[in-house]
Amino acid sequence: MSNHSSPSRQLNSFEEKELPTQLNDIQRDATNNDSGYKEDVNEPQTSEENGPIVHEITQQGDFFEMGGHRYRRQDLANIVAGDLDNAMYKRRPHRGVQLGNPVPLGLASFSFCCLILSLVNARVRGVTDSKLLVPAFLFFGGAIELFAGLLCFVIGDTYSMTVFSSFGGFWICWGCINTDQFHIASAYANDPTMMDNVEGFFLAGWTVFTFLVMVCAMKTTWGLFFLLFFLELTFLLLCIGSFINNAHVLMAGGYFGILSSVSGWYSLYCSIADPAYTYVPLRAYPMPNSQV
């Protein structure tokens, strides 16, 4: 009997042997976990190619999954909102600033120069020499309208940018043609017929351009469409009059140019007449199926 221990004593002996071993295993696992945690925090995770690990972000309802973890969208929004309250973000310029509309400026410069040139072409009061109008062609019709076209680029208006910038170039060219320092007229002094034909070629190019932009304006407003429609007839008659050297056709082109200018003045007034500041506001009537 003395050689055999009781079952309770054997159980206690087993517990005394196994318990230190289990405690050592738990401590070893905890140490490994702590060391692994510190390693993840202090050192960036890298892939096998020693490159940074990029986690994909996916959205499922009100949750975001990132790096195998799921986050509430509202929690992330609160964190971002807190960062945006920082003074560094408040110093940034506000992108929603309302910019002025440069289209009335382009209409003003074009309508003015179209009117004064058309009066000369129509030979109103017998005037046929436009040398006094050259500064207006170069600066108001040319530089200012070109500037208006560049401002249309800023606001993202591709059509107005193309039209105003192109006609700004036209007025600069027309001013240079009538400037003696460019010696254009003197170059054709011995052959005036060639001068008329070259001028007809120049006007023919603008006839084609005006037709294209007129077709592109068939769903805008009646004022803008009539401006381009009468301008198309103006260029066409001036082109024909230059080729055949007929003063009556040139005068007819001048009268259609006056009508084009009047349409431009009307569109200009509709653009700037604010009912809050004037008792005589005018409406820009849209064309059928217009999106304006």
From TrEMBL:
Domain of life, per lineage: Eukaryota
Pfam family, one: Gpr1_Fun34_YaaH
UniProt-recorded Gene Ontology molecular function terms: acetate transmembrane transporter activity
Main location: membrane
Record flagged with keyword Transmembrane: yes
Region (Disordered): 1-52
Subcellular location: Membrane
GO cellular component terms, A-Z: plasma membrane
Biased composition regions of type Polar residues, renumbered to the chain: 1-13, 21-35
Record's bilayer topology term: Multi-pass membrane protein
Family per similarity comment: Belongs to the acetate uptake transporter (AceTr) (TC 2.A.96) family.
Protein name from the UniProt record: Ammonia (Ammonium) transport outward
